[in-house]
Fold these 3 entries.
Entry 1:
Amino acid sequence: MPQQITFARLTEVDPAEIAAHMSDPRVAEHMPLLTFAWDAKAARRFVAAKEAHWARDGLGHWAILHGGAYVGWGGFQREGDDWDFGLVLRPDVFGLGHRIAQQALAFARADARIPHVTFLLPPSRRHLGALARLGAVPAGEVDYDGARFLRFRLETG
């Protein structure tokens, strides 16, 4: 039986573990906004920023656990009228991405606040078949904090 995937608050993860994850160059490869070095202090700032979204919107990014162990973070962040879905996994568990996305999107479909989900990917991402398999369709490009992203949209209703 496969190990269970669960979602927890980022506050439940040791900041040093988040910093180690985000310091891996394989993670940064497709994250144009990742322009600084990560340490425990940066991880605490990151967690505080993500917790502010929870306080403001009642939803935000989770710590993702596989068999109880931290494997990354992701979830939904309100961006204007959109709920943007992000997923950042440790490289050793990249293969769990589809399973985690399916579980998160099931959550979105059951939540009346989320009529659709957007995905922002940097143009460096060439393999976009997983988004098509999820049912997401291209929805143009956007500039976010000075970086260009490909935008995809998935209706959840």
Entry 2:
Amino acid sequence: MNWRTISASTILAASLLVPMSSIAASFNQSQTSSSYKVQTIAQNPSNDDMPFRKRKRWGNKQQRLERMQQALGLDDNQVKEIQSIHNQAKKDTQSLRQEMKVAKQEMRQLMGSNTATDEELRQQYDKIQGIRQQLSLKRFEKKLAVRKVLTPEQRAKMAELKQQRRQRWGRRGGF
């Protein structure tokens, strides 16, 4: 190999590496700023006061009910009725949710075992689907009960708000 070939390949390699180093430097800076944002959000004291399940973006049930009251113009009696519907639905579904938890655990055990037959797995799957269907029916019944509390104007407003929410999710590439 002669010196001209070596120097040409060295220059070519160097010309490729220099732009890559500037890209790496800018990437490193953007990583630093995003990690700062994550650190800032994580250190937000208001999040530390709430249990993990309550930190959802849309808020806890009380906050959602307050927003619903404000958006639909619910009176105090309607709010109390809706709260009682939610509380009763929670009591009604509590045993089903526990049953679902046990059924899923059983399914995990069956899937992990070497002795479970396909038929046993299908039966367990059918059991889980039945519980899901019961839970879905309970949610639907709860929606119907809340619907009965609302006036026709409030129902129309709620339908409009739900349509707006669906459109927002659609723009974001939602499900």
Entry 3:
Amino acid sequence: MASAEPIYRVQDLVRVFSHGPQPVIAVDHVSFEIPAGQRLGIVGESGSGKSTLIRMMAGLRRPSSGDIVFAGQSIVGRRESELSWLRRGVQLVFQDPRSSLDPRMKVADIIAEPLRSRIWQGTKRPDPFSRVNELMAQVGLDPGDRNRYPHQFSGGQRQRIAIARALAPNPRVLIADEAVSALDVSVRAQVLNLFADLVADHGLTLVFVSHDLSVVRHVCDAVLVMQAGHIVEAGPVDQVYSDPREPYTRQLLASVPRLRRD
């Protein structure tokens, strides 16, 4: 269950890209809160600003203006050396595991990588060997395969490796950016169920970004709909899906494939 205390507070956030003859406003005065324990979906078409938004939330991109408060502390304007608590507390799973996993590294080293980073300075880190075995079992991989390389696994298994790596530092928030869109349809449901189980088992807050409303409905309890850098609709998943207020949301829902009945 989500608590009343927000783990994230985003206030009047703006991101402008100045490349080219005309500036592009990717995120335009966006504000919202995420209660701890919530499973929030962020949906919208390509170019809606959702990926730029989550990268700012993870401290990977600086906003042009506005504020982002994580666990009671603003992350805006801080140096990288001041963000170790954010790096431990927020982890990301990206769209394509083929590009997010180093093919030269063994799986054990990939999963243990966050445990060897500087984010643990001044704090006690978990034992990498036992943590890797534990995480591989949790995501449905055989710990006996820890010394294999990413190319020796299927696409769904590689995404499980990426999820295990994200869980390694025991984060409070897991951000998934189109994390199943590169997978075969046959394995998407398995990975979505894995996300749902892990979030419940670890008491995580989930931010799940997708262009696919049916995917978000499977794992999330609340949703933000973005269009051209704005949040155009927000609310509980069931409410937004059953009674969308905005034409853009209705358009997205209408594009979800459905089985025909003769």
